[in-house]
Automatic annotation (TrEMBL), chain A:
Domain Beta-ketoacyl-[acyl-carrier-protein] synthase III C-terminal: 281-352
Name under which the protein is recorded: Beta-ketoacyl-[acyl-carrier-protein] synthase III C-terminal domain-containing protein
Pfam families tied to this protein: ACP_syn_III_C (PF08541)
Organism in which the protein naturally occurs: Cellulomonas phragmiteti
Top-level taxon of origin: Bacteria
Automatic annotation (TrEMBL), chain B:
Species this chain originates from: Cellulomonas phragmiteti
Domain of life: Bacteria
Gene3D superfamilies for this protein: Heme oxygenase-like
One Pfam family linked to the record: Haem_oxygenas_2
Full protein name: 3-oxoacyl-ACP synthase
Length: 379, 231
């Protein structure tokens, strides 16, 4: 069977409101008591994030829906490519939590975006759901089922990071860690079967996603108590007031597992090198989603074992200035790297997204390609 | 071109079989195809997705008529031409949904189904379609076997080559070249059926002349359809 190729031809992002520095967080999320302030300071010092965006006003009231962030990022990507929603035949969305329980996030985003009939996929999960959504659209474009689709990853965790969610129970480090790390934003890409006619494009060489949930307990969670599910024990089984009181609506991460997550991610990367999907001699750009600078340094050390001459300038991240936007982070970083002219034809771009949820890892390799307009065409 | 100097196949040459005469018509067609701009660009690797979309768009406006003129021809064969009528009825049914394959390819390339359906024939397609409907309206239009020889021959012998080359140059998926690849199999079967008719001994000399003449006209008009894209 002959398949087409898939190219990323348009890039967009949307970050709501003004950039909020570390001093501006408490006004929006609350938690201005001395103990919480100390914990916050300590977490911010280690994660290295200096600025982020929230879809909250200065009083902490919501200003936008998650689906609105997604649509604005999509419009930015479509404008970047010079096409309209009606040109899309598929839309895949990724988010950790949509605005509503039902229907799917992609359905709500399509409804707000407009355009014509199209195939939808709502990928759920956490950070790597963006790569699952990308893989779906890329696969359908390669099959020739659709000439053009879009992928958007969008997160609006801020409203559930506000003080009211944390009232009434004693939040441990597992709850604080994400509260002072996550923020809002959306990133989108356009996928087509042909390169952009007049600009550079990013050809998708491969996408790999693997879960190690068979071997690991839950690490990042909400809607359950403890790290294991049991019948009658999820947020849907108990009275909502009891679920709230038990802190079940708070996003938590078992920070004690994160070293294991980093090591497992490095092992996955090593495997990609061993089987030849990644050629370390031709690894021009690396865009890795990580939650804190601590994990960047762990990753650098691991890469140096394979690439002693690793040039860390080739490693792009905007975590410090755009925050950790979960599934959206990888596209928000890719968009900025793209827009700021880092890429040259023939270079490779490795995307890497570890997801703590229950240990999954997604990687993709892109190659920068020249415009499609053939040289020496007779007309 | 050497074939331009060969004997005119429309007049029965002593000893030349019907298949040999149709073979000469085919060579004339090949000469014309070699001068079609979009096929030249396909050959030299400068063809674009837009070229392929325009080609499908133009073909569609005539393909949509395919089963209609064959069905009209079928209705004009009397009982003495029962076998030809049976073949035409079967063929019309098989061609009946062809344009949907073409539409699916067109849409899979990013084209608009509504625009495709709202399209008009180019001047070559107008001439080709007009000729075929007129011919099919005659009593016992056996000459149309010559039309089928050309049109089915293009499907069986050339379309799959074009599809493979479009895939090679433009990086297309199989799902974007269904119409042209399908015809390799479908029209291959049809040309097999047709060769059985042509060599059956049921065709008299006058009918053979009609078949060859019709093939000649259709070959020229088909090439014209490819030359006159969007005009």
């Amino acid at each position: 069977m002959t398949t087409a190729r898939a190219y990323l031809t348009g890039f967009g992002r949307y970050l709501p409101g003004p950039a909020v520095d570390n001093e501006g967080i408490a006004a929006r999320l609350g938690g201005d008591d001395a103990v919480t302030a100390r914990i916050r300071g300590s977490i911010l010092a280690s994660n290295g994030i200096r600025q982020r965006h929230y879809a909250l006003d200065e009083q902490g009231e919501p200003t936008e829906l998650n689906e609105e962030l997604a649509v604005k990022a999509l419009h930015a990507a479509l404008d970047d490519r010079g096409i309209r929603p009606s040109d899309l035949r598929m839309l895949a969305t990724a988010t950790t939590l949509g605005d509503v329980l039902v229907p799917g996030f992609a359905n709500m985003v399509h409804g707000r975006l407009g355009g014509g009939p199209m195939q939808l996929l709502s990928a759920s999960g956490v950070c790597a759901s963006s790569m699952a959504a990308l893989d779906a659209v890329v696969s359908k474009v390669r099959l020739g089922d659709h000439p053009r689709g879009a992928v958007v990853a969008s997160e609006l965790p801020s409203r559930s990071l506000r003080q009211r969610r944390y009232d009434g129970f004693r939040a441990g480090m597992d709850a604080h860690f994400l509260r002072w790390m996550l923020s809002d934003g959306a990133g989108a890409v356009v996928v087509e079967f042909q390169p952009h006619p007049t600009r550079l494009s990013l050809r998708v060489d491969w996408i790999r996603q693997v879960s190690l949930a068979h071997d690991h307990a839950v690490c990042m969670r909400a809607g359950m108590s403890g790290d294991a599910t049991h019948v009658g024990g999820t947020w849907q089984d108990v009275a909502l007031a009891d679920a709230q009181a038990a802190g079940m609506f708070v996003l938590r991460q078992d920070v004690g597992m994160l070293d294991d997550l980093a090591q497992a991610g490095i092992a996955q990367f090593e495997e990609l090198v061993d089987i030849g999907l990644v050629d370390v001699r031709h690894l021009d750009h690396v865009i890795c989603h990580y939650s804190t600078n601590v994990f960047r340094d762990v990753a650098f050390d691991a890469l140096r074992r394979r690439i002693p001459s690793l040039d860390t300038d080739r490693w792009f991240s905007n975590l410090e200035t755009r925050g950790n936007t979960g599934s959206a982070s990888i596209f928000i970083a890719l968009e900025e790297a793209w827009r700021t002219g880092r890429f040259q034809p023939g270079e490779t771009v490795l995307l890497a997204v570890p997801e703590s949820g229950r240990f999954s890892f997604a990687f993709a390799q892109l190659t920068v390609v020249a415009p499609s307009r053939p040289q020496g065409a007779s007309s | 071109m050497t074939s331009a100097t060969s004997t005119d196949p429309s007049t029965a040459a002593a000893g030349a079989s019907l298949l040999e005469r149709l073979g000469d018509v085919w060579l004339e067609l090949e000469d014309h195809l070699a001068k079609v701009p979009v096929l030249q660009r396909l050959d030299d690797g400068t063809v674009t997705v837009e070229d392929y979309l325009r080609l499908l768009f133009n073909l569609r406006q005539q393909v949509i008529d395919g089963s209609l003129w064959i069905a009209r021809a079928a209705s004009n064969f009397d009982i003495d031409h029962f076998e030809l009528r049976a073949a035409a009825i079967k063929h019309a049914e098989e061609e009946h949904r062809d344009h949907f394959l073409l539409e699916a390819d067109y849409v899979a390339l990013g084209g608009s189904r509504a625009e495709l359906r709202a399209g008009r024939k180019n001047v070559g397609s107008e001439a080709l379609s007009g000729y075929l409907f007129t011919y099919a309206s005659r009593p016992n239009p056996a000459g149309l076997i010559g039309a089928m020889f050309i049109i089915e021959g293009l499907g069986a012998r050339r379309a799959a080559q074009w599809a493979a080359r479009f895939q090679e140059v433009l990086g297309l998926a199989d799902n974007q070249v269904h119409f042209m690849t399908y015809h390799q199999e479908a029209d291959g079967a049809h040309t097999g059926d047709m060769e059985a008719i042509l060599t059956s001994g049921l065709i008299d000399d006058a009918t053979a002349d009609e078949i060859v003449r019709c093939a000649q006209v259709v070959a020229r008009l088909y090439a014209l359809q490819l030359e006159e894209l969007d005009r």
